[in-house]
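Extended Data, panel c. Modelled sequence:
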Amino acid sequence: MAPPPAAGYPMKDGQQVQILPAETQSKGDGFWKGCCAALCCCCLLDACF
């Protein structure tokens, strides 16, 4: 089975491959929560050992 042609490439029947708009979502503050959790964990382990 061959991969689909590139977007905008003309097909044999005259139609073109159309690209559907992708839905985007906000990533939020998960990165900062993870960084703070990692720092707190490191500080607690450092205090315990």
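The chain is about 40% helix and 0% strand. This feature is highlighted in the accompanying rendering.
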